[in-house]
């Protein structure tokens, strides 16, 4: 306890009335801000709070009360602790007992704070498995955060993501620096703005555009095949080569630029920088979107990510200049030659919905690379893992590809998309891989409308962040033929199933559906058909542990894979 002497030296201690008032002010502040979505204002509010503390210390305690700097700072700190105690206890009590989600089951720690999710996610980077564990323990509706609900029901898919949904994107989407004009397609939460922008993306990824990209995709697939042939009989890390393929295709088709990774057999420095920062950004950003925005703003806190985004900005500028030249050289009637040029064309033509600010262009370029590369490459690697584990499936694929290549006077070896696009088994393989190992395993979050949402017998209140956990719903025995069948790799199941009707949502649904789906299928069909036509069933390398691969994938929003060592042999 402070002696009478130290109390005198420290100046008069604030009265109990002041302390009580501050505590009540803390409680009041919580209830004042509670009705508003402050997720993207946390940094501004925090800065205003710190500024108030500095003003209190300097302006009141030092200047008016005449205390020395140290004593003024300690008094201010003590007062802020009382205010914070009011604020935090009000938040915790409200979330635990009075929140509109308080009747939904879930871990107590998750109900009161997102720190639970951040810790669970950081633990093994396998939040998708933790989510499945929570559903096993608590049932179909689990409160995974203060206003977060995970829903394991097939009926929730159309209700939350379908074309007629009234749900909108959660605050997570816009958690980047900049204003409403600085967002990419994926970050646009306003349905009208999103629709206008998406039109331009869809033009760049239409079937007509894809036909013009095909020769470049084929050339990349050939390069991958060359690497496999060079290494025939020896172990090769398919995770790495799959990644090279995904990024090389995306740089070509996205920007008319070559990352050249399949040739150099090295990861491009911009991609290395991106990958090095993804773990921390996904753990922090997945649970606390405002922290993601803060980290991106702080120089050095996300250096790798900044390097990547600068690279995207530079490449974009280069592409814009090249596109303008192409147009000036009277090629204006010709369609743009890559996805980003379709967006540039929209801007040049003054069309509504084209990206506006420099930042939004940078974000679009980043989205193009991130959304289109890691996703496709993990599907390729995972499919090869399943084929090595199920040689019968590979044999079937080989038979059907051989037959398609020989049909209508084909030479039996030349693979074009036209020749193999109707091999249904190829699509079943891809769909089955995406069922068991979705590229976005945690699923995507949405916000319920103010009036709430009815899912079967349960009413979900309004303004709740909801998600259907993709990994869990796509393995749920109730929908996938029972306990054993649900986790078996059985491509044939797709003969009688539709991707729209089954609880399968690998590319999302409705307005937010992936516009790159057809490109992804084209890339995957081409490369898998080429592999099947040239190589025997891939084998796991001697000493390689397939179980470790199967259980080692990480949820960094998109799936991240451990190494996959396979041995290919030419037929
Ligand atoms: C197998 C590969 C792929 C999978 C599994 C996949 C999956 C997804 C999913 C689940 C979403 C929804 C994300 C969300 O709402 O948070 C999405 C969105 C998106 N994807 Fe893909 N994707 C793949 C390939 C591609 C490719 C090749 C591109 C090409 C550029 C692409 C571009 C996009 C874009 C731009 C969005 C945002 C759509 C919007 O905001 O409306 N994706 N993708």
From TrEMBL:
Transmembrane segments: 12-33, 40-61, 73-94
Coiled-coil ranges (or none): none
Keywords: Heme, Iron, Membrane, Metal-binding, Transmembrane, Transmembrane helix
Keyword Glycosyltransferase: no
Species of provenance: Apiospora saccharicola
Protein name as it appears in the record: Cytochrome P450 67
UniProt xrefs under InterPro entries: Cyt_P450, Cyt_P450_E_grp-I, Cyt_P450_sf, Cytochrome_P450_monoxygenase
């Amino acid at each position: 306890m402070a002696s009478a002497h130290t109390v005198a030296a420290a100046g008069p201690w604030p009265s109990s009335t002041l302390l009580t008032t501050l505590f009540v002010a803390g409680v009041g502040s919580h209830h004042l801000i509670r009705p508003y979505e402050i997720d993207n204002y946390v940094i501004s509010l925090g800065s205003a709070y710190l500024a108030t503390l500095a003003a209190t210390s300097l302006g009141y305690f030092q200047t008016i009360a005449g205390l020395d700097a140290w004593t003024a700072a300690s008094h201010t700190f003590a007062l802020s602790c009382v205010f914070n105690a009011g604020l935090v206890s009000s938040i915790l009590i409200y979330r635990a007992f009075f929140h509109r989600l308080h009747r939904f089951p879930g871990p107590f720690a998750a109900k009161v704070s997102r720190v639970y999710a951040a810790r669970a996610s950081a633990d093994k980077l396998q939040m998708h498995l933790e989510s499945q564990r929570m559903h096993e323990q608590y049932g179909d509706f689990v409160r995974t955060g203060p206003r977060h609900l995970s829903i394991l029901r097939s009926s929730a898919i159309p209700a939350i993501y379908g074309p007629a949904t009234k749900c909108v994107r959660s605050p997570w989407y816009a958690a980047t620096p900049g204003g409403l004009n600085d967002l990419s397609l994926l970050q646009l939460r306003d349905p009208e703005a999103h629709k206008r922008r998406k039109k331009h993306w869809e033009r760049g990824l239409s079937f007509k555009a894809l036909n013009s990209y095909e020769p470049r995709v084929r050339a990349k697939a050939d390069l991958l095949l060359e690497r496999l042939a060079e290494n025939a009989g020896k172990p090769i890390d398919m995770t790495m080569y799959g990644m090279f393929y995904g990024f090389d295709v995306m740089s070509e088709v996205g920007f008319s630029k070559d990352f050249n990774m399949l040739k150099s057999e090295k990861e491009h420095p911009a991609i290395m920088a991106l990958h090095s920062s993804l773990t921390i950004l996904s753990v922090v950003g997945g649970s606390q979107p405002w922290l993601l925005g803060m980290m991106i703003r702080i120089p050095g806190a996300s250096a790798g990510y900044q390097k990547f985004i600068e690279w995207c900005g530079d490449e974009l500028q280069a592409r814009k200049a090249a596109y303008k030249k192409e147009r000036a050289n009277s090629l204006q009637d010709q369609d743009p030659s890559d996805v980003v040029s379709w967006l540039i064309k929209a801007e040049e033509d003054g069309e509504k919905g084209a990206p506006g600010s420099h930042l939004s262009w940078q974000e679009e370029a980043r989205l193009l690379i991130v959304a289109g590369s890691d996703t496709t490459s993990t599907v390729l690697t995972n499919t090869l893992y399943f084929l090595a584990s199920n040689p019968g499936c590979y044999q079937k694929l080989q038979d059907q590809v051989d037959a398609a290549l020989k049909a209508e006077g084909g030479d039996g070896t030349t693979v074009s998309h036209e020749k193999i696009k109707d091999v249904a088994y190829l699509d079943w393989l891809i769909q089955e891989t995406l069922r068991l190992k979705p590229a976005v395993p945690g699923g995507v979050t949405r916000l319920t409308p103010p009036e709430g949402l009815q899912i079967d017998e349960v009413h979900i209140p309004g303004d709740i962040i909801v998600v259907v956990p993709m990994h869990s719903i796509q393995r749920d025995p109730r929908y996938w033929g029972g306990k054993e069948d649900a986790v078996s790799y059985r491509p044939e199941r797709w003969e009688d199933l539709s991707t729209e009707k089954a609880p399968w949502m690998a590319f999302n649904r409705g307005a937010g559906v992936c516009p790159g789906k057809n490109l992804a299928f084209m890339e995957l069909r081409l490369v898998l058909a080429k592999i099947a036509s040239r190589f025997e069933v891939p084998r796991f390398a001697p000493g390689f542990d397939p179980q470790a691969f199967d259980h080692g994938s990480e949820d960094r929003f998109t799936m991240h894979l451990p190494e996959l060592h396979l041995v290919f042999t030419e037929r």
